Amino acid sequence: MDSAQVAIIGAGNGGQSFAAHLALLGFSVRLWDVEKEKVDALKKTRRIRVSGAVTGEGVIDLVTGDIGEAVRDVGLIMVVIPTVYQGSVARAMAPYLKDGQVIVLHPGATGGALEVRTTIREAGSRAAVTLAETDTLLYACRSPRAGEAIIHGIKDRVNVATLPAAEAPRVAALLNAAFPQYTPVSNVLVTSLNNGNAMMHPAPTLLNAGRIESQSPFEYYSEGVTPSIARVVEAIDSERLAVAKSLDVTVPSIGEWYTACYGVTGKELYEQVQQVKAYEGIKGPTTLNTRYLFEDIPTGLVPLSLLGRAMGVATPAMEAVVTLGNALLGRDFWREGRSLEKLGLAGKSSAEIHAVVVN
Amino acid sequence: MDSAQVAIIGAGNGGQSFAAHLALLGFSVRLWDVEKEKVDALKKTRRIRVSGAVTGEGVIDLVTGDIGEAVRDVGLIMVVIPTVYQGSVARAMAPYLKDGQVIVLHPGATGGALEVRTTIREAGSRAAVTLAETDTLLYACRSPRAGEAIIHGIKDRVNVATLPAAEAPRVAALLNAAFPQYTPVSNVLVTSLNNGNAMMHPAPTLLNAGRIESQSPFEYYSEGVTPSIARVVEAIDSERLAVAKSLDVTVPSIGEWYTACYGVTGKELYEQVQQVKAYEGIKGPTTLNTRYLFEDIPTGLVPLSLLGRAMGVATPAMEAVVTLGNALLGRDFWREGRSLEKLGLAGKSSAEIHAVVVN
């Protein structure tokens, strides 16, 4: 096993950015994607040109659509796919995992590492891997086409937590060889409860459903997060903070997070969001079939709300968004999403949940 | 008491249309409004010019801001105000009410007649009045300014129910002297559960909150009720039908209602709504402080949902809209709205509720 070898799982915006950046930093990079066309396109040159905060052309050692080939014997597996697919990808890689490998979910949303651990075990793997999840993607980035990535910005700090919890400093150190921004935190409850996407995406998208589906373009943050919609986000955020408190976990409020990440101040979330320069030009979704709903509801609001229910904390605003999201999309995110069973937390008390995330 | 004398309570779109139309039909009309400026403007000429489906200039006998002066000794009191003010107006008129007077709410939304009865009794009135509610306003109309009304259309049929229930044929006959469209139905549960506004207004408004608050104009029905939003309305409507069924009340689905009212057909609500000619040109609200929320939530979704809860019928989509409406507007419609206490129905079984609405 080679700790200088990194497998990047997912060649989307984040995956290609990581791949190019790591290659430019001298790491040996393997890149996997589920999409055959993308794999074929990337295989041709094995080069990804990156611009913005990082500039250059990274050469990828191996581009593959075979997940076994991607992950076999590498020290570090970076999973950079929509969180909603983390379970199925974990199931696919399970047969190839070996003791000592580190799998990092970028990010885990709520319950990523727990879901992956449960899934790998259910798939029959007994490999002693370390699972890690971050609370946000390192980059603000996009990949307009295969072989090209634009990194608009790099965050100052990203939290990383692990299963077992005590491995966080070691995993952070591993990541710090490339990226000094990763900072270990005590356990995955911290990263899982620090889910800003679940705050900023589903409710504003839902409350802009009409203009999205009738193809009326808008700026997602400056026009989509109106004063009243920001108030709804704050209501949902206070439910998240109450769930965290019930689990004795301290996480920043969404307002504190904006101040920490972007240095924007203001009494209300609305004012803060309006000041975020990085949001300029970010358009609202053009279809309701958007990750802002089909990802951030099942891997964000659903497990947050279910954790609340288990702890006796009411989350009516979260539930309302899930319920209306279900009706809008004709889906059942309560069933599709991360249940406490899928996270290995069903029927457990706060103390028992803490025991699960320590081990 | 003069049965040819009619008091119109409220000089809005509907009130001025009724006043002009009734005056042109030869009735003696008194017109009351809470707004001093409007009363002063109307007092100057006591004339309302009406155009559209009805043409002419109606002369109003009395325009007043004194509700006692308006209702004293008239046979018929037509209440044509936002349903959310029906309670406070009932309290104001209670001291002046006399045996035999008929009060008709145009429309009652959900629980209008019940709330007015409870309110009048609590205000200390023992007058034997007959209370009536319709399930929709007779007209599609607007009043661009005091003294002018435009009646775009007149519905073919409007249901009317009464407290006590047996009075419905008599009240319908009274109304039929002017308007043949009013048809008696068995009791106020029928009219109260037949609340189309509560289906078509709060959810689509909520799901268009972003474009409303960011002042992006749109056609309310053709652009605002997108296919997915129509699906949400259908989910809410099936909850309403389940509540009705639990109370042994038969009401049409929203789709059946569209077919009956507008002759539009189609498998899905979305298709039907797109065909309604009368909806052409109806713009979405330009503020979230709109009757579509502050009226149709507390006098529609709240009592419908609470009736459901009392009958053991889950109404998660209705509750979701109320919850997010509360968060959007910073209000508490569960508290402000029509509770079962306000309707005199708290703690009652289906059979007991039927006994209440018969008497």
What are the key terms here?
homodimer; 359 residues; eight-stranded mixed beta sheet; four-stranded mixed beta sheet; globular
Structure description:
- Two copies of one chain form a homodimer.
- Chain A is an alpha/beta fold and 359 residues long.
- Chain A is 44% helix and 18% strand.
- Chain A has helices at residues 13-24, 36-45, 67-71, 86-93, 112-122, 168-176, 188-193, 196-200, 202-206, 209-213, 227-246, 254-262, 269-275, 291-294, 297-311, 316-329, 333-336, 350-358, and strands at 2-9, 28-32, 47-52, 56-59, 62-64, 74-79, 102-105, 130-134, 139-145, 148-154, 158-163, 182-184.
- In chain A, the strands form two sheets. Chain A has an eight-stranded mixed β-sheet with strand order 5-2-1-6-7-8-11-12, sandwiched between helices. A four-stranded mixed β-sheet of chain A has the order 4-3-10-9.
- In chain A, helix 4 (86-93) runs parallel beside helix 5 (112-122), helix 11 (227-246) crosses helix 15 and helix 15 packs antiparallel against helix 16 (316-329).
- The longest helix of chain A is centred in the middle third of the chain and has 20 residues, at 227-246.
- Chain A is globular.
- The interface between A and B is medium-sized, with 35 and 35 residues.
Secondary structure layout:
The structure is a homodimer of 359-residue chains.
Chain A: E1 2-9, H1 13-24, E2 28-32, H2 36-45, E3 47-52, E4 56-59, E5 62-64, H3 67-71, E6 74-79, H4 86-93, E7 102-105, H5 112-122, E8 130-134, E9 139-145, E10 148-154, E11 158-163, H6 168-176, E12 182-184, H7 188-193, H8 196-200, H9 202-206, H10 209-213, H11 227-246, H12 254-262, H13 269-275, H14 291-294, H15 297-311, H16 316-329, H17 333-336, H18 350-358
Parallel strand pairs in A: 1-2, 1-6, 2-5, 3-10, 6-7, 7-8, 11-12
Antiparallel strand pairs in A: 3-4, 8-11, 9-10
Helix pairs in contact in A: 4-5, 11-15, 15-16
